[in-house]
Amino acid sequence: MSPTAARILAAQPAGHSGPYHGHVTFLGAGPGDPGLLTLRAVEALARADVLVADPRAYDVVRTHLRPGTDTPLQNAALGAPTAAASDAADLVMRAARGGKRVVRAVAGDPGMDADATADMLALAAEGITFEVVPGIAHAVGVAAYAGVPLRDPDGADVRFVDAATADERCWTEVGSSDATVVVSAVLESVAGTAARLISSGRKPDTPVSVTIAGTTTRQRTWSATLGTVERTLKSAKVLPSAEGDRPVIAVVGERGAPESRDQLAWFESKPLFGWKVLVPRTKEQAASLSEQLRSYGAVPSEVPTIAVEPPRTPQQMDRAVKGLVTGRYEWIAFTSVNAVRAIREKFEEYGLDARAFAGIKVAAVGEQTARALIEFGVRPDLVPSGEQSAAGLLEDWPPYDPVFDPIDRVFLPRADIATETLVAGLVEMGWEVDDVTAYRTVRASPPPAETREAIKGGGFDAVLFTSSSTVRNLVGIAGKPHNVTVIACIGPATAKTAQEHGLRVDVLSPEPSVHALAEALAQYGEERRAAAAASGEVLKRPSEKRPQRRRARTS
Is 70 exposed, middle or buried (0-12, 13-18, 19+ CB in 10 A)? Predict the structure, then answer.
């Protein structure tokens, strides 16, 4: 019996007998990209009562937990009165004995984790049921993201080596073979690993690729040879501290040659790879935009520049909601998620629910607003087929027809600073519009000091301005973005406001859509990448071009 199993069995309460009703899922969180979690893993996390997760695994899986899931290791790290953080195995066993559904999450794949295997044996010895949800192993996932195929058409042999546990016999075998060798190591041991392979028979000019922070937007890959890899990493000033215990993956052999990587490095060649992009919106408002930016390789950071408050005089809103219930309106049009939220709150105040919309046609300005309505229990009748804006909504809105429309009135709950485009267009088509202030927008509180410093000091590579108010409010609460930061604006009016605040506008969206704006920024990033490649320069992100502060001399 393994030491872990023996220790856990010894901790069993005296006199305990009978069946166990708990269940444990050993879950592989993969090498770092949350998108690599399997569907089965997401299902297990959503049902978990207790999550026992290593720190790197926790960062990957936490967004899939249901509210109230106990995370004892993380609580212990914060100083909460709970079990010792160093004993994950005991935490798993105690929770399972208590009838809990437990998820034990590890980085990479559980089958490659010796401690996870020992824990499974201990559970089996007590008759506690468990299952394994495989994850993508570091060696395989990182190599794929680095654009380094591990097999060639001839089916050459592939050997996987853990530098921390490999013995002399292992090094001799892989050194004397012509197999592709995938080495999992820490950064400090890469040079020593190369030297051992050379001393075991590999030629110094054997190609090697080294990847750090694999599958994340901090990923970096260097191509060298066994004889030059130490010098290559030193000249690139690669520091180990930023990655902690995250494995470095080195691929030794012709598969790691730079010629193939130039064509296959799909991840690091994304147009905004590694860019930190400031999105001046709340997380709820920016959900689809941030996801689009991530698809381009960017790291979005949402900073709200406005806060939402109720109208100063609620009487107008009260009358409109009562009119909604009594049949005053043919249509209600929602132009934002905040408008949906305002109506929902007013309904709750009156004890109403989505059934109050029966017989009323509902319009939503875009997909995000439509999703908020669906969550409320209302499926919109009209969503723009083209541009997701007031103008796009008008394109699809039917003109008033006294034969088919028994009522000619539209309820439009909006912000206090909304434009008149939709109102004017509806009136022109024959509709009467009750334009009601459903909420007020005010300047948000300043972001944390660290974020303000990053904005003013050039820590962000780009900022997306989606309206003139976002320009004014961001500058007001956080200061003006540094001149190395790429400024992207949704339209001419927003660009003019940015210029009035002393900002250089680099990217202008071809149409007033946040998704077109993100696409325009990606095109800008692609053009920078192509220009750097044509000139032979090393591509740097905008934030990497800011002047570095000189260190004060010490005597």
Answer: middle
What's domain 309-443's architecture? Answer: 3-Layer(aba) Sandwich (3.40)
What are the backbone angles phi and psi of residue 408, rounded to the nearest 5°? -105, 20
* CATH superfamily of this structure's domain 3-9+21-136: Tetrapyrrole methylase, N-terminal domain (3.40.1010.10)
| Other residues' Cβ atoms within 10 Å of the Cβ of residue 189 | 16
User: What's the predicted TM-score (pTM) here?
Assistant: 0.75
End-to-end CA distance of the chain: 59
Beta-bridge partners for 436: 413
- SS3 of residue 442 by DSSP: strand
Beta strands in 461-517 (DSSP E): 462-465, 486-489, 507-508
Kindly report the CATH class assigned to 140-264.
alpha beta
Q: Give CATH for domain 276-305+445-542.
A: 3.40.50.10090
* Residue 491 structure tokens: 């339209």
Inter-CA distances, 411 with 236, 315, 343, 375, 508, Å = 61, 15, 11, 20, 33
pLDDT in tens, 335-348: 988 899 999 999 99
Q: Where in the chain is the domain with CATH 3.40.50.10090?
A: 276-305+445-542, 309-443
Q: What are the structure tokens assigned to 388, written together?
A: 């997701």
Residue count of the chain: 555
Q: Where are the CATH 3.30.950.10 domain residues in the chain? A: 140-264
From residue 203, how far is each of 337, 476, 493 by CA, in Å?
A: 62, 61, 62
Classify each residue of 262-296 as buried b or exposed e, where b means 16 or more C-beta atoms within 10 Å of its C-beta.
eeebebbbbbbbbbbbbbbbbeebbebbbebbbeb
pLDDT digits (tens, 9 = 90+) for 3-54: 444 444 444 444 444 444 699 999 999 999 999 999 999 999 999 999 999 8
